[in-house]
Amino acid sequence: MRSPMSLSATAIPIDAIRYNDQGLVPAIVQDYLDGTVLMMAWMNATSLQKTLETGETWFWSRSRQELWHKGATSGHLQKVQTVRYDCDSDALLITVEQEGDIACHTGERSCFHQIAGTVTAPPADTLSQVFAVICDRQQHPQAESYTNKLLQGGDNKILKKIGEEGAEVVMACKDDDPEAIAGEVADLFYHTLVALAHHQVDLKAVYQKLQARRR
């Protein structure tokens, strides 16, 4: 589990936040790695202060009229990475590492998991969406799927394609062709994602490595 950031350095002006008539402000919670919107809940000045002090999310329950430490009962704590407020200072955006990868009380990863009454994976960044499709093909093979043909071919087929696509990226860069570079890098990314799925490596593990290299 990644440690929460030092929130004292973020200097969120609690008194400058524009709370509504009930003394509340909406807080949108987002996965710090892939950008998935996990939930929306309400904060008051006290819960925001406790969030900043503890590095874990605290909210205000309107139904119970009490402070609510997210995950204290379920174990699905949220380790806060950043806290931002919008241009009108009346909404918060909080990025977190979600313990257990479950934010919703239903057991879904995100509270925003429904489209027209159908349960579906919440939106995330493009690489995560493509990786989710690859993993779905792995679990539910389709006869004409190129992804399934790669997976069935194992390392020999997958790694051969990665080598080919890597060489094509090099050639596109040598030609200084932006359109070709974008296309070849996309192909390289895709085949690398297939390799991750084949070896049961979660894309979030790669994101964590990239996060560590930002410093």
TrEMBL record:
Localization of this protein: Cytoplasm
Pfam families: PRA-CH, PRA-PH
InterPro entries: His_synth_HisIE, HisE, PRA-CH, PRib-ATP_PPHydrolase-like, PRib_AMP_CycHydrolase_dom, PRib_AMP_CycHydrolase_sf
Pathway noted in the entry: Amino-acid biosynthesis; L-histidine biosynthesis; L-histidine from 5-phospho-alpha-D-ribose 1-diphosphate: step 3/9; Amino-acid biosynthesis; L-histidine biosynthesis; L-histidine from 5-phospho-alpha-D-ribose 1-diphosphate: step 2/9
This enzyme's EC code(s): 3.5.4.19, 3.6.1.31
Keyword terms of this UniProt record: Amino-acid biosynthesis, ATP-binding, Cytoplasm, Histidine biosynthesis, Hydrolase, Multifunctional enzyme, Nucleotide-binding
An individual GO BP term: L-histidine biosynthetic process
Region (Phosphoribosyl-ATP pyrophosphohydrolase): 127-215
Residue stretches making up the Phosphoribosyl-AMP cyclohydrolase domain: 39-113
Keyword Nucleotide-binding: yes
Methyltransferase recorded as keyword: no
GO molecular function: ATP binding; phosphoribosyl-AMP cyclohydrolase activity; phosphoribosyl-ATP diphosphatase activity
Cross-referenced PANTHER family: HISTIDINE BIOSYNTHESIS BIFUNCTIONAL PROTEIN, HISTIDINE BIOSYNTHESIS BIFUNCTIONAL PROTEIN HIS7
Family the UniProt entry places it in: In the C-terminal section; belongs to the PRA-PH family. In the N-terminal section; belongs to the PRA-CH family.
Protein name: Histidine biosynthesis bifunctional protein HisIE
Protein species of origin: Leptolyngbya iicbica LK
